[in-house]
Amino acid sequence: MLDIKDAVAVITGGGSGIGLALARYWVERGGKVVLGDVSEEALKKAETEIKALGGQVVIVPGNVTKEEDCGKLADSAIEAFGKINLVAPFAGVIKDGMMVATDKDTGKVNRKMSLKDFQFVIDINLTGVFLTVRECAERMINNDCKGLICLVSSTGSLGTAGQINYSSTKAAMSVMPKVITAEFFRRGFSDKIRCVAIAPGYVGTDMVKNMNQEALEKILGNVPIGRLIEPEEVASLVCEMYRNEAMTGDTYFIHGGLRMGSKG
Ligand SMILES: NC(=O)c1ccc[n+]([C@@H]2O[C@H](COP(=O)([O-])OP(=O)(O)OC[C@H]3O[C@@H](n4cnc5c(N)ncnc54)[C@H](O)[C@@H]3O)[C@@H](O)[C@H]2O)c1
Hints:
- By secondary structure, the protein is of the alpha/beta class.
- The chain has a single domain (about 10-250), classed as NAD(P)-binding Rossmann-like Domain (Rossmann fold), CATH 3.40.50.720.
- The protein has eight helices and nine strands.
- The strands form two sheets. A seven-stranded parallel sheet has the order 3-2-1-4-7-8-9, with helices on both faces. Strands 5-6 form a two-stranded antiparallel sheet.
- Strand 7, helix 5 and strand 8 form a beta-alpha-beta unit.
- Helix 1 packs across helix 8, helix 3 packs parallel to helix 4 and helix 4 runs parallel beside helix 5 (about 165-185).
- Nicotinamide-adenine-dinucleotide (NAD) binds near residues 16, 17, 92, 203 and 205.
């Protein structure tokens, strides 16, 4: 089992939601955090909060879609703390819409998801994760670090109507742990650097609070625990997966028993 005390976590999307909850949870157990986010304002607030908890924190504003920003984030962790033990590339966005929507009266297509809206989500949720993980993995290997790369998939990976962009990126997150673990196994360091994904259902963060509230009420009616998942509950799972070295190469759901119908 690994110990969180003195371990270093690099978290993107660290300025809010699940990323920030993980940062809090990590430092409360003696870990150190390097937080990346595109929102400098959110990062500064997060820094104040983490310091108030007595945690050691470095903030690195940046956009995960930019290769140089991801390199800078990984370098900052090595410069500040000399190692990386947990990589949590949690920066993510939604931009929902039907791929093709039809007019109620004519039955003809009157709207389509734009290429811009499709690409926006792919760039951040897929390319951004690839870049963050690639840059951090390089530093972990070259600095002989031990730990976990923990991606964030979603129950949306199973296919949710209105989310062809988001669901596609989250399905990709659930295959990446297998690819990364297999590659590390071939090179002989899969016992040192593991990779998993978590797949949450509906978590009470800004992402979900900004959803269509009527749709959210309907969804909650299908959740056996009868409520949104708390960001701290997701953070707790990530930390347990970090500690437990038997966990690698797969995706682990945390959704309160969500009943997923064919319409997502
Ligand atoms: N909230 C949920 O119900 C839920 C469920 C399943 C999976 N997830 C996933 O968990 C992750 C975190 O979601 P959340 O609910 O905490 O969302 P959130 O909106 O609270 O936080 C996302 C953070 O990512 C940052 N960000 C956005 N674009 C960025 C970019 N280009 N570069 C760097 N940072 C950027 C935002 O500024 C924000 O601080 C996402 O990947 C999301 O898809 C969330």
